[in-house]
Amino acid sequence: MSSGNDQQSEALSKPTFSEEQASALAESVFGLKVAKVQPLPSYDDQNFHVYASKTKDGPTEYVLKISNTKASKNPDRIEVQNDIIMFLKAAGFPTSSVCRAKGDNTASLVSVDSGSEIRSYLVRLLTYLPGRPIAEIPISPQLLYEIGKLAAKLDKTLQKFHHPKLSSLHRKNFIWNLKNVPLLEKYLYVLGQNRNREIVEHVIHLFKEEVMTKLSHFRECINHGDLNDHNILIESSKSASGNAEYQVSGILDFDDMSYGYYVFELAITIMYMMIESKNPIQVGGHVLAGFESITPLTAVEKGALFLLVCSRFCQSLVMAAYSCQLYPENKDYFMVTAKTGWKHLQQMFDMGQKAVEEIWFETAKSYESGISM
């Protein structure tokens, strides 16, 4: 359990820049002529939507990202993240462009006197991507398939990415890496004593017994690690029949990138696509089919998928409850997953692995025969 002092120090790590300060940073560090600045939702960093005055060439909308003090102490990792965003854009993925600061760096360290100490924050500027978060629309089976395909293509493409500081993505105790599900045990106190806690404890126990022992059999890769329903943007267009068709127009937030496994990326994507769905259990089969059209799973990976999806639910739900204690003013943002997440996790738990897998695997199989369910 974290002590009060530990909680306070973590709370202090999140930036608290005003709109005026963000505007001044965009101008002084990146040379923009700022017309307007608006705060954007964020977990433990700070993001601003920056509108720049029109110029003859170049974009007029940007995202100013201010990393928390802990992340700012690892500039190598942020450099790698920026280079990956640019690498993926060059490979045809809908990622932002990374803007250079006046000194030609892709990130700049700014120091702020808080009164009691000097705090340093890494600041970046990315182009603003168009589109709506997938959370705002009813997701069709075809779109779920495309998102599964996108997740696999992203991880597969990153196998070709090389960087002298790539080792910074080996994040040993990073709470959001699925490998570190057992670390949730020290945060369970935030749940109190109830059925939700019992389910989480059981998932952690199964994870230790059934996943930790099989990690060496999973295929390793770099994971985006957070392909959630707010980090994937979509745009609509009219089909020949007059119906709206959606395409992915943006992939956001590469801050949780780390070394993991292909099956981790798939499990994380399935879990987040379940959040807004009216038929959450059906989701996994469509995402799985899309993923396997690029990277088919091995039998061992497939056998772990159910438990990995449950584990990601546990990570998201436990850490949301914990974060609400640290930053109560941001509760609405943290609890987005919890609105339906606990219900979905309980449903998976009650149905059991065999029943859920049967639905997923049969749905995925139907794509092979050309008859998607």
Structure in a nutshell:
This protein has helices at 4-12, 19-30, 69-72, 75-90, 141-157, 195-210, 262-274, 280-292, 299-326, 331-334, 338-351, 353-368, and strands at 34-40, 46-52, 61-66, 108-113, 118-127, 132-133, 220-223, 232-238, 244-251, 258-261. The protein has 373 residues and is α+β, with helices and mostly antiparallel strands.
Please give a structural write-up:
With 373 residues, the protein is an alpha+beta fold. Helix content is 43%, strand content 16%. The protein contains twelve helices and ten strands. Strands 1-2-3-5-4 form a five-stranded antiparallel sheet. Helix 6 (195-210) crosses helix 9 (299-326). Residues 1-12 have low confidence and may be disordered.
Query: In percent, how much strand structure appears in the residues?
Result: 15-25%
The arrangement of helices and strands along the chain is HHEEEHHEEEHHEEEEHHHHHH
Largest sheet: 5 strands, antiparallel
Give the CATH level 1 class of the largest domain: Alpha Beta
Q: Using the coordinates shown, work out and report the CATH topology of the largest domain.
A: Aminoglycoside 3'-phosphotransferase, Chain: A, domain 2
> What is the CATH-assigned architecture of the largest domain?
Alpha-Beta Complex
- Radius of gyration using CA atoms only: 21 Å
In CATH, the homologous superfamily of the largest domain goes by the name Aminoglycoside phosphotransferase (APH), C-terminal lobe
Catalogue the unreliable spans. 1-12
Average pLDDT, to the nearest integer? 91
> How far is the first residue's CA from the last residue's CA?
45 Å
**How many extended strands?**
10
Taken together, the total number of domains comes to 2
Shape: globular
| Helical fraction | 40-55%
- Give the structural class: alpha+beta
